[in-house]
From TrEMBL:
It comes from the Eukaryota. This is Uncharacterized protein.
């Protein structure tokens, strides 16, 4: 159902980024990367986005949509709404990156958090897996400060702060090999991936989540690859990655071999960050990645509409 909805929302047009930016009440100003540092950005956090007033939600949807248009060329507003919301989530959080000089939103992370019980029947604590799924984007001319990585780590730090005593995993739809490889640096428990895992638990949970969100792989030998027709990812830089293929990590090679940089294909994957004693995956308990507070301001979002 979700797959059908995504496909019907995609439209055969490529909107101009400049035209899209005019939607925002904070249009992007000229920017010089040579005169800007990471200290010029601040992060704002909204816990449970769905609980804030509808007018505020709409305002933030319109503020962040143009940023999404700089990553996915053929996205429209209805599809964007579907990507950042769900009827089956436990909660939905939002992180904004704001450029201080002009007080402009230049990046975001919508984070959906699911409460999933492996197999669906056993409702015990050991069988509960708090699962993040986030949709991140940063405007192209603000890349180069590692903001995408920082956004990912801030997102997971805040989730770990709330759910760090539970089994905690991250299901994600990854657009390029760099971010797939990044996840492998956080944990050795990645599915699907180039390395054999100690149990079938991650694979079973991955397939359960795929069913939950209505996604199907293109084939059995590519369990994480899904196809969305007419989807055009901007700036994938195929040549950059293929030229360095032989020197790349096993994870980078795996992404390239599975994905082949074919437009319309996206890789879904599961990363396991924390497992409790007696977890039903049958894998050694422990925190595989301890996300720590970063040297960036993280403030509570101040509503525009009271």
């Amino acid at each position: 159902m979700a797959q059908t909805l995504l496909k019907t929302c995609l439209k055969p047009f490529t909107p101009s980024l400049l035209r899209s930016l005019s939607i925002s009440s904070n249009p992007i100003r000229p920017f010089s990367s040579s005169s800007t540092s990471s200290a010029d950005f601040t992060f704002e956090y909204i816990k449970n986005f769905d609980s804030i007033p509808k007018k505020e939600q709409e305002y933030l949807i319109y503020e962040t949509f143009p940023i999404s248009s700089s990553v996915i060329a053929d996205i429209n507003l209805e599809l964007f709404r579907q990507l950042v919301s769900s009827d089956v989530i436990f909660t939905n959080n939002l992180i904004l990156i704001r450029e201080k000089t002009f007080n402009t939103i230049i990046g975001f992370s919508f984070t959906k958090i699911y409460e999933i019980f492996l197999g669906g029947q056993d409702k015990s604590f050991e069988n509960k897996y708090m699962t993040t799924q986030y949709y991140n984007a940063v405007l192209p001319h603000f890349r180069g400060f590692g903001l995408g990585t920082v956004l990912t780590e801030v997102t997971e730090y805040l989730a770990q702060k709330d759910w760090g005593d539970c089994n905690q995993v991250s299901f994600n739809i990854t657009l390029n090999p760099m971010y797939y490889e990044l996840r492998s640096k956080y944990t050795p428990l990645i599915y699907p991936g180039p390395k054999e895992l100690p149990s079938k638990g991650p694979e079973k949970l991955f397939r359960q989540i795929m069913d939950l969100v209505g996604l199907s792989p293109v084939s059995q030998d590519k369990p994480g690859i899904i196809r969305l027709k007419n989807l055009h990812i901007i700036g994938q830089e195929k040549e950059k990655y293929t030229k360095r293929y032989n020197e790349s990590s096993d994870y980078m090679k795996y992404f390239i071999d599975q994905h082949l940089f074919e437009q319309g294909l996206i890789m879904c994957n599961l990363a396991v960050y924390n497992l409790v004693e007696g977890n039903t995956m049958g894998i050694a308990p422990g925190r595989y990645k301890n996300f720590i507070p970063l040297m960036h301001e993280i403030n509570e979002y101040k509503p525009k509409f009271i």
